[in-house]
Design goal:
single chain, elongated, about 70% helix
Length: about 100
């Protein structure tokens, strides 16, 4: 695994705490910080998934359990046609 060097500014108390924890766990401060960051990022991801699930459930509840029926391919096709129609007059009048 490759690493990137970063510089962090810590308060003296944060540094003492990290140093103490690293010593207790027989790890370097860098390894401990990577572990803490990985754990926090994992938690953030899990929180995001849970928020997304709740929003989805709320939307379904408001729609009486019916999912939103959207044909994404057809929606994109329609948007492209609208855009082409809007561009066509401009393109024919602005030729070199």
């Amino acid at each position: 695994m490759s690493y990137r060097r970063v510089q962090l500014l810590l308060t003296p108390e944060q540094h003492r705490t990290l140093k103490r924890l690293a010593r207790q766990r027989r790890k370097s401060i860098s390894a401990l910080v990577r572990e803490i960051i990985a754990r926090e990022l994992q938690q953030e991801n899990e929180d995001w998934i849970e928020r997304t699930r709740r929003v989805t459930q709320d939307m379904l509840a408001k729609r009486g359990g019916k999912p939103i029926a959207v044909d994404a391919v057809e929606l994109i096709r329609g948007l492209r046609e609208e855009r082409s129609d809007a561009i066509a007059p401009w393109a024919t009048t602005h030729r070199d």
